[in-house]
Design goal:
CATH class: Alpha Beta
Radius of gyration: 18 Å
Number of helices: 7
Number of domains: 1
CATH superfamily: P-loop containing nucleotide triphosphate hydrolases
Number of strands: 7
Strand content: 15-25%
CATH architecture: 3-Layer(aba) Sandwich
Distance between the termini: 18 Å
Strand order of the largest sheet: 2-5-1-6-7
Shape: globular
Length: 210
């Protein structure tokens, strides 16, 4: 079984994670490579199991809201599938495989961090992220102020709770078997001042160096 390069993309809501992942997938996928993307947003627990904020109600912004066990099971299973496809290159003409993981709490969980040989953190300004999230959610103009209050009071405040820990976890140097590895590449990119294409180019350059 050949190694699959795992790229982890993290950052606050509205920083451009999904856009970057789509660009990476389109650039990495060729006739001789296979690429898959797994979003942690697909692994929220049922709303009945989520914490409740006294002002904002159901709170999706905490680690407790992510079913990380299911995320890990699915990710490891997909890794094995991709490694099998990659190793049968004589039949499929596939010589490389990439798995891209993305989520605003991706680097919170050490078990997830240790899977990623390329770790990308999209740093972005609060106002920029809020505006992007507002546009993405199709918030009517008359509700913009209320949305900004929600974003700043819940989404951003909880992001900041886990910001420092995620940056520390980013520097972990263990592989999935718990062994020290020097094959980890980390990138902290300014997603407020660089275009998605510029961000993608930097991640691709770093990935090529692994």
């Amino acid at each position: 079984m050949q190694r699959v390069t795992v790229i982890g993309v993290c950052g606050p809501s509205g920083s451009g994670k999904s856009t970057l992942c789509r660009l990476l997938a389109s650039q990495l996928e060729t006739s001789s490579t296979v690429v898959d993307v797994i979003s942690m947003d697909r692994y929220f627990r049922p709303t009945t199991q989520l914490p409740v904020h006294p002002k904002w109600g159901v709170n999706f912004e905490t680690p407790e809201g992510i079913d990380v066990d299911k995320f890990m099971r699915d990710t490891v299973a997909r890794l094995r599938q991709l490694a099998t496809v990659s190793s049968s290159s004589a039949e499929t003409k596939t010589t490389e495989a990439f798995l891209i993981l993305e989520g605003f709490l991706l680097l919170y969980f050490p078990c997830v961090v240790d899977l990623c040989s390329v770790r990308v953190f999209l740093d972005a300004e609060q106002a920029v992220c809020c505006e992007r999230r507002c546009r993405r959610s199709w918030v009517p103009a008359e509700e913009n102020e209320a949305f900004r209050e929600f974003y700043d009071g819940l989404v951003w405040s909880y992001y900041m709770r886990y910001h420092a820990l995620q940056l520390r976890n980013m520097q972990r140097t263990l592989d999935p078997d718990g062994q020290q590895t020097s094959q980890v590449r980390t990138l902290i990119l300014n997603a407020s001042k660089q275009s998605p294409e510029e961000l993608c180019a930097k991640v691709l350059a770093t990935t090529a160096a692994t």
